[in-house]
Amino acid sequence: MNIAVTTPNLPESVADATVVTWHKQAGEHVIEDENLVDLETDKVVLEVPAPQTGVLKEILQPEGSVVTANTPLATILPGKALDIKKSKPAKTTEPTTKPEALPPHASPSVRQQLHAKDLSEEDVIPTGEKGRIRKQDIDHSIQQTRSAPAGMPAPKLQAGEREERRVPMSRLRARIAERLQQVQQSAAILTTFNEVDMQAVMTMRQQYREQFEKIHSAKLGFMSFFIRATCEALKKFPEINASIDGADIVYHGYFDIGVAVSTERGLVVPAILNADQLSMADIEKQIIDFGRRAATGKLTIEELTGGTFTISNGGVFGSLLSTPIINPPQSAILGMHKIEKRPVVVNDEIVVRPMMYLALSYDHRLIDGQQAVEFLVAIKNYIEDPAQILLSL
Length: 393
Prior knowledge:
The protein has helices spanning 84-87, 108-116, 135-146, 171-186, 199-216, 223-236, 280-295, 369-384, 387-391, and strands spanning 3-6, 17-22, 29-30, 35-40, 45-49, 54-59, 66-67, 72-78, 189-197, 243-245, 248-250, 257-259, 261-263, 266-268, 271-272, 309-313, 332-336, 339-346, 349-363.
């Protein structure tokens, strides 16, 4: 009896998925729980494991197909795993003809990554089955280029040529474009700015960094300070932690803080649930875990769904000042930026301090200007005197 491989259940916020990569072909043996195919949604890449050991009898949905929940993807003929030793051909001394190598090929998501890196399929040595290019192959090719001796020409430099390339937009990029356009058209977005003296936080990090890392096995970064400061400020300004649903205002009695993470596929925003109840160490560990799994497409849809407020750190890319866009249905987003030493006046004296510009974009339909300004000032005060965070003042 054939066993059906179907699309897993998708959350209500995800309508369908695209088949991007089959890791097995019809006629090949598969092992239970082995990943058969990758499905790309507008949020994450889902892996579909084999429900039973046997032979992949038929692929019903080729790469590029759009599928919904419980769509039949393939069929498996149950049976024992392939005995590799028994299946090896007998040795022979007769000359054999070397089979012609298959041309390299890539899935839509890998082709998108090739385009982003200005590479073609011929620039990458494939290591996947039947000449398939994997994402690891692209990274390896880039590393080899960077480590090449000085004087070697960079690949694909075509100065002066009027070349155009057309590639399909990934589902994640299409969803990002849709959401950004939606929020620009539906919300009344304003941005207020301030600057914060980072000296106290930097001094604390310098003093306790080694001890913190030794005890908690995690580095003490800036983000945990801002997440804790944000939670305390949100408690004072519940409208900024709220959202609009039709004609209603939904006030959230919890603090799920989204952290914007940049990946090869685009920007994703996993949420740290109940961030106000977590220690600094727990927050840092979760951020590291998010970053690691975001890079490999292993974040779950549940982790990317929800969130009551978002923090985006453009400073890691060198941004000095920007106006972040709200992540709907949230009502506000905090933008962190690059730390720069600047002359400032402290106690009527000009001193040099490590300063950071902060930006708060907010939906003016729900949040008044005074609330937005006072909220940002509260975060500034917590960061400049971090002891207040620990004391919940």
